[in-house]
Each structure stands twice: as C-alpha cells, then as structure tokens.
What we know:
This protein is of the alpha+beta class and about 250 residues long. The chain has six helices and 14 strands. It has a single domain, classed as Endonuclease/exonuclease/phosphatase (Deoxyribonuclease I, Chain A).
Amino acid sequence: MKFISWNVNGIRAAVNKDAFLWIEEFNPDFLALQEIKANSDQIPSEIYELPFKEININQAKKAGYSGVMSLVNFQTTCMKSMFFSDDEGRVLEHRFNDIVLFNIYFPNGQNGDDRLDYKMKFYDSFLSYIKNLQKEDKKIIICGDVNTAHMPIDLTNPKANSKRSGFLDCEREWISKLLESGFIDTFRYLYPNLEKYSWWSYRFNARVKNIGWRIDYFFISENLKPHLKDAFILDEIYGSDHCPIGIELDIEI
C-alpha cells in the first residue's frame, strides 16, 4: 500500500496550479494533506473528482488557516484530535485493523515564544498519547509537516539556522525522543546519507538552488518495520512550497 503526505499551503491555490495531476500516476491508497486553508464548503470540486472513496476534513476555526484533509481508498474510523484542543484543525486520526494512522500539521514555532511554547506542548501531548497506543500493541503511522528538521543533514544551512525555530535544540530533541520511544524515521532509516528536502522558501529562488529543509515525515512504530518497502520524497512535484513525501508498506486491509 502507498501512503503519501503533502503540505499544500492552500488547497484552492494548489488546484489552481493543477497541482494534483500526478495522482493518477502514483495512485496512492492514502493521501494526507496539510495546511489546506479552507473550510469544507470551500474545497474545490476537483478534489472530489480524485480517485478516492473517503474524504475527511478537520478545518480550523479561523478562516483561511491551517486545516488537514485525508483522502482514502479503504474504510477507516476517523476522528479529530484526541490528545490536544484542536481549534486549529491540525489532526486526523484514522483507525483500521490494528493500525492507527495520524495525518498531522504540527505547529510552527517561529512567531514568538508563545507559539514555540504551544508547539512544544503539542509535541509532548502527542508523544504521551501514542505511548499509550503502544501499550495497546497498536501499529502506528505518523505523517505530516512536523515543522522541524532533525539532523544537520536535513537542511542546507544548519549552523545559520541553529537559533531559529525549526532547528532549535528543544525541537530536535523531541524528534530524538520519538525515535527512542520505538519509532522510525522511514526516509532516514532507508537512506541514511541522502540529502533531500521537502520544503523550500519562496524567497531567493531557494527551490531552484535546492536550499531547503526536510521537515515532512513518515514515522512508523517498530512493529511496522518489517512491512516497510520504500520511502520517498517527490521533489519533482510542484504546486506548494512543500513537495509530497511517501512510503510503501506491505500490508493488507
């Protein structure tokens, strides 16, 4: 099965850029979108014409802000955040078989100390929640825009960004704690030395120069590691300041 995640930075803008033409070629079973920036009644009709059986949306209370959407080709039980007050529309949790799959737009901490504090509280609440799921022997998949680069290999200028939210020690340490808790960064696990990015600033021709950050992830729990077949970053696909990322798992529904 193929799972793909993409921060579209505005689903209406992405549709206007014909940003979903690749769907037919890649044929994902699950497509997680973050930062859709739209209410359910503002979703372009073209999205409902994509080849998926189930569409779920968690919109922010604030108009034109945040929001996540999942497009699925199999039946799931879907719910919004069970671990954090989610007025910002950041979480969709899907359950099927013994698997729990999260589509998450993690907070950005760059707009002052209050937002960084919010981000870290969100991180910690989520980690506590999934640790409880591990105790239930659940298989767990986490995908989305985590808004943090973990290691120096994951961004072009680590030293210059060491005091910037997105590469602060406290943020990076949280990802380390996640991995130490029994999770795998799928792309880095399969490609330990490959420098590829998933986000580029719109400024200074950053994408053309490949001055980027890898801040979008698929994490899986250790009990899914035998099922991991591939992880990939689709940096040839445009339509957002992020590109899609994905994994293939050998599992059946």
